[in-house]
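Dear support,

Our group has been running a series of protein-ligand predictions, and this particular one with glycine is the one our PI (initials K.S.) wants archived with full inputs and outputs. We had some confusion internally about which version of the output was final, so please treat the block below as the authoritative record. The input we submitted was:
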Amino acid sequence: MAIQPKLIIHGGAGSTVESKGGLEPVRQSLYAVINTVYPMLLNGESAIAAVVKGCELLENDPRFNAGTGSVLQSDGQIRMSASIMDGDRQSFSGVINTARVKNPIYLAQALQTSDDRVLSDQGSVELIRELGIPVFNPLTDERLYEWIEERKTNFSRKMADVAMGTIGVVALDQNGHLCAGTSTGGRGFERIGRVSDSAMPAGNYATANAAVSCTGVGEDIIDECVAAKIVVRVTDGMSLQAAVDKSFAEAFSRNRDFGAICLDASGAIAWGKTTSVLFAAYHDGSGIGDTLI
Ligand code: GLY
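Confirmed final output from the archive:
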């Protein structure tokens, strides 16, 4: 018997919805993705296909800090990171600090079947060439202006305004398979070579039991190993909600700055945040909901 599919997506976390253009525009952006991707799952498509499509759409939306609209690093360049993890095969793949590509999630997906499953900058450029993916400049005027303004104060801010706009998608398909995908332009204004959590199991992780995508300050996510921690707790028998509650109680106690979206194989949906807002929406089989207010 087919399992009821589930879907949860995020476009980052932050202190206010105004930082992303206001409640309704953010809601519309997120719901548009749900309305495209959830029917794919109902039509029997795989969790992996749903995650790739959802990440592609979120990467293409300049509101979010991934793909088009990515923030700039301290040297004025955009370097993006993305990963995907197939829970059924427990297989992680991703790219770190890739550039001049529209959809980094495609690279992460292509590496699922490779012997070498996580590639950094130069390797990802080779992969783009091998796959015949056209060169693309993800820079938007808004992100460039933000960088120019911040340069005047020698990058005194810790991160760009939309930096916590990492995107992520977690899906459960009709066969009961889970998948998680995450993509980011990074923290913004970071030094060259800084590695994001988004292409690490700390920020994106899945097994046959649970799947999680994180957003927020990468260093905090890495320190807590959030995605893998929640998934391992569920895999070891804890309920999804209990695993999220425990992991976020630990995060609060250490003043961390992040959020996470989560699904388990039974179809439970959960999320957590230490930030004021988590820009997430979901489809639980009966309708769409969100975490915006
Ligand atoms: N979570 C995205 C980053 O810090 O790079």
